[in-house]
Amino acid sequence: MCPLSFSAMRHREAIVQWAYHRHAWRIRERMKTASVALVLCLNIGVDPPDVVKIQPCSRLECWIDPSSVSAPKAMEQIGSNLQMQYERWQPRARYKKCHDPTVEDVKKLCTSLRRNAKGERILFHYNGHGVPKPTANGEIWVFNKTFTQYIPLSIFELINWMAAPSIYVYDCSNAGIIINSFQPFAEQHEHELEKALAAQALAGTQLASQLVSYKNCIHLAACAANEILPMNAQLPADLFTSCLTTPINIALKWYAMQEKLGMVPRIQSELIDKIPGKVNDRRTMMGELNWIFTAITDTIAWNTLPRELFQRLFRQDLLVASLFRNFLLAERILRSHDCTPVSLPALPPCHRHAMWKAWDLVVDLALQQLPDILEQQAAYRQLPFFEHQLTAFQVWLDSESESRTPPEQLPIVLQVLLSQVHRLRALELLARFLDLGPWAVNLALGVGIFPYVLKLLQSSTRELRPVLVFIWAKILAVDPSCQVDLVKEYKYFLTVLQDTSVSKQHRTMSAFVLASIVHNFLLGQTSALQGPLLSICLEQLNDGSWLLRQWLAICLGMLWQNFEKARWSGARDLAHEKLYVLLRDPIPEVRAAAVFALGTFISSVTDRSEEQANNIDRIIAITLLETVGEDMSPLVRLELAAALQWMVLLFESQFVTVYMSEHMNSHTSSLVSCGGERSASITHGLPTPPQSSNSLDRAPHVSMGFSSFIFNMISASAVNVSMGGSGGSSNTTNAIPFQYIFTKLWQGIYNLGQDPYPQVAAKAQKIIGHVRDAALCMITAKEATNATTAGCTGGRDRDRDTEQKLNTSNLGSSSVSLPPSPNTRCNYLGAGGESPPVGGTHAPATGGVGGAAGGGGGAGSAAGFAPASASRWALKLRMSGGGDAQQRKLRTSSMNDEPDGGAGGATAMPSTAPVAAAAAAAAASATGQADGGGNHSARSSGSENNHYTDAANSGKSMQLQPIFQTQFIPWAISYFTRPGKHRYSCAEDGSEEEGQQRWPIDRHSTALRIREFRYLRNKQDRSQALNENHKQRIRLDAFSFVRKTQFTPSLVKLLPYERQIAVAYKEKVLVYDFVRNSVFNYVTEAPLPELTSISKNKSWPHSQSYARLASASQFARVSSFELLNAQDVGLMLVAHDDGVIRVWQSAGSSTTGTASESPMMPATTTATRLISAWDALPRHNYSGNNSYLQRLITDAGGVSGVSGVSCSSNTSLTGIGGGSTGAGLAGASLHSAGISSLASTNIVTAWQQYSQHLVVGSDYYRYLRIWDVERELRLSDLHLGRSETTVRVLSPFEANIRCDLIVAGCTDGSVRIFDKRCPPQSARVHVYLEHSSPILHACLRSEGSSLVTGCTAGKVRVIDIRASRTGADGGGILHQWDAGADITAMACHQQADAVACGNASKISIYSLNGCTQSILRNNEGFMGSKIGYPTCLSFHPYKVQLAVGFVDNTVAVYSPTSVL
Hints:
alpha+beta
């Protein structure tokens, strides 16, 4: 099967962060129970009056029989045992016992504990077995000092003494009454405290206490409000307390009592008391039982409780978690004795959970061993509980159901991590679970995975490293805040990254983890820099895994992002030069990552006083522009714009100088050469000249191949160049090379602003708008200074004089000199012909500086002036948002320069203050951003804040803020966030090449079954077509489809596997479906929301530029189109006259329409999505006279030999010599010499699905360009030769057959054959000179041996390319004939014996030997009316069907009629 094109992740989805919901799993307030109050009201020997005890009755209190010893001693032993039982769960707490207390004793105890505990939790344990039951008023009972009376203690008083947070345990009958009374008491207490605090605040007195909230108070009661405690003599009297403090003992005793279970009849209660081991030793029976009990109760709670409640009760406090685990057991045991434990917060019933059966099995297996262990000293055998639970978890993972519920065993899996025996298996299963997506990561973090896997990073076991790296990569992809916890453990991941024995997949994840640790985290960057992270990344940049290369580059970029120390460490290791190799990587994501890393390398140094840093960054910027400036992938070009923005921010004054010079020069050139005609030079924000419907004028691409020239100029500049505003005039000799560099960079940015991909153009336009605003800000500041010194009256007179000069200059200015610095205002205003922005209510705000200058001469300049009462500088102030914020200093050589004194001292005139305020308010409302002082940023970029903020006016600049940010890094991180089935498959076994991006195959997916169906259908269609092609004679005389179109078709093609025809006219490509009678319209997608909103906001200075980007009519005429992925879901590749290629995807099903639809009505269409767009050939370039760059190069010494630069003012730069040629900087002023247009370029394409190569040619360039669509790279440029000829047609490729020959028909009548396997300089293998007229059609047939060619003179040749290639006439010609000198279209079938030639009167179908098979006359057919002559012909790729486009706006398909 042929591979699919544009099927990578970057094409299927938007480059944005993968959407998922992150749950809060961290415990915000991790609590600790610091104090425990043990209040025992037993009054041993005296039963309470309201309880009648049965005989025999339960007597044990804390496993002690009070009747066995004296009452005081028994009381002391019970209290000591209770304390020991609690100390198992919280050994560090402060314990206080209070035996048979009075009210005062309880008060003293509670207040002292609260005083010492401060904000920590206090536990209040109340045993009321020797006092009456609690009252309905919420009172518990204590004693008087003489033990003669029971004294009630209100729960209201108790919570007042205990305060919050607290936990209460009530082991007494009717204990639920206390919980029922607590809530109203707590609410009443909070209400009274709020009133007291409010009264104190009104009185002005100091607040004596703070508001106490009782929401975090926890209550555990042994039974409900109407229940009494069980009195079973086989159970202890304090059964609830025993369940809470000694759960294993009471659970085993209760299990042995159950006759219905009866699995271990030999076990007596006395043996259970002798179970060996300790609770905290998991190798013993007691320890393992406690370990399993913890896992089971955690599992029950996690599967039953809400997530928030589970976090609060089972993860916030160790003692609280232990009590609630044991409370679940108490619920099970007490409910079996008709008693219902109650809690606040209330828990759902858990006593019937299925996991209790697993606990019963564990207890039974353990008790079976107990007699042998005690009697025969047998060794204890570990229980198989965890192994069985891991198997159940694995079964859940293997069931690939999308609707399955979360696994019950997840808390158990976390407990298994404590076992060395099962740890590796548990980690592997946990990794599989986390790979299901962010929801699984959220569940694992919520259940408590974090401390377990963090502790395991201290393990030195090599087997655990890959799986731990995988787990941490999934965690960091969902929750990047974990980087703080991993700073100390970064060396663990460094070890994995450096270990070549680890798989490349896990090394890639290790690089991602390290990148996450250093991402915007200074401590992480510092720690990683101290380790060998930098050197390790640089050593592995040439690894075979593309994903590893990508993340190594991203890791480097994040390491030195805003961290200058790491940048200089990388510079010493030549890190930036080693990253240059990745700029030519076959994977676009790797190239984008390298661009990102180099961009952060530039932005990491903000102090520009070091010339070494400036030189390095200039070299990097030029290299980026040369290498990826014409990259096929929009992803890479967008990152290039993001990287170049830092050059603009750091060297703002240089770009302002270039902008003003180009703006002024282009306008001057238009006045001189055109005499006032509309100029189309690089004016960046002036109104664009009207564009024809067939082409879109563009500025030339930045020419490539200047590296050595730039490097030599930089290295030759020994004298430091002033980078300030007057740097241009301080040293002309040294300033010119740098000015040339910034001009080149500026033109590259401008070309990105005209990029065919809307997102790239929109971001680059923000950079252009930033420079435009900086220039406007500087001009306004200078005008404000002059206006302040001159006064109001003089300023008005000067304004009138200046307006008169402006009008004069607009009409007759002839020459402009290069300004020495960006602060030169007079020359710019007086000679550049710039008009002030329109103010007031007379007209809306224009797009930037000199809004009328680009409109062509001075015709509209005078009309744009505001009333005389407002000065021009005030109007500019209004345009840019006004206020003191404009008076900032432009970025120059150093980030720490003092502000400009002249601009800083300027003040606004009283008459213009309202104007400035109104402008500031309008800007604030338009952009939604304003600072605290009410002054808006001087630049008019509506989506960004001021990039140069002052810290308390100290003159020290804060960290630079980008003009815009891309989503590449969040999108790249999302690769690890998404489920495994949504990531590329790995090639660890060597079966696949690691450089490929292939999706994993889901054998059970519906998409795979649909694809298999298409494969079988396509195979059957090709087989049937092959059988039909073997017929002796074929007659094409029947219409199978005919339809009117809106305009004359220029191209038609039949789709190979669908009953559809694609028709192109003007800027559209439409696909008509024969069966459904529907239309797919491949034209333009909806404008970007940000562009649409900006373009509608007329008050925003950039609205006109963005309106041009958002308009749907900016496409040039369709010159060629190809159907990609025809064997699957097809994509439409459309080539336009301006050299732009766009790839479209149809979204959704089409809307049906009628065949009688009016041709003038818009076609019924479906939504389309733009997948990719790029400049397949260099944009048209024209050399204008007096170009600023030409004069710059000439002044620098007449630099010659620079590839792609022409200093001629009249010679057009034609595309000879590859991608960098034909795009020289000499064309900086597009049409500035008055050249309106050249003939439209005819772009021809040939698509080969098998190799995913696209061959592009043009009648404007003398070479063929081959693009690798899979890698999104330009493979090579194949030169046609020395003759002055260009490509006119290309032979189509067979879709599923490998073919390395390219056949190009040229305008001089030659047919040239190229071999892609050969080097570009020797790729041309043969030239056929059989025609003297331009080639009309060329077709290399599917067998690969015969070539059919035809020219405009009607000569048709069938050539055997295997024949001897001597220069003899007629060598290799099999057949030839004359089809008539008036043919307008021609087509040849690649498999069948058919050649179609059409002229004004007929369409003739010939066989390959020249015999006429059938004739289609233009007045025949069932329609009965005469149709026009054909404009285009095309055969079906497999079937014998002919598609014809006629000049009378008709498209038809002819099908064969069988001949008997």
